[in-house]
Amino acid sequence: MKTIALIASLVLSSVAVAGLNPSSSWEEIKADFSVRESAAQVTFNAGQYSQIVSIMDVCYEASTNSMKTVNAVMLYDRVDNGDREIWVELGKKQLSTSRAYSKEYCVSGQESCHEWETVNYDYPLSTMVAVHQNDNQERHGGNLLFSKSFDVPNCK
User: What are the sequence ranges of the domains in the chain?
Assistant: First the structure.
């Protein structure tokens, strides 16, 4: 019983430290640098390279069944400058990709794949997003504070 009470008090104190809770708006959560969101990602084909963007930074275009970046994103290219390759900014662009996508998985083979299977997916229009305490050390944040539903907005 003491263990359950201790865990409950730790969770409540973590949420209180951040000053946020599941009822907080996404604007409040995004503005608070003591927390970090861990959300699904959307992959855009950006020329030679792919650009990965948080689902929280995209909108849905129903007329084309596509996902678009809300804001233009910086695109980069790798350039060989003689002794090493460097990344060069190409400029900003709003990206778009189909909501439907597929992935290939190896279903037969150990050393090398003998058989592949293609699985079709749709990017979600609603998803749960984990909100972590930002400890500035881990990629996805520190302790999980809470999860909150996020709905991808329609594009304007």
Answer: 1-37+133-149, 41-123
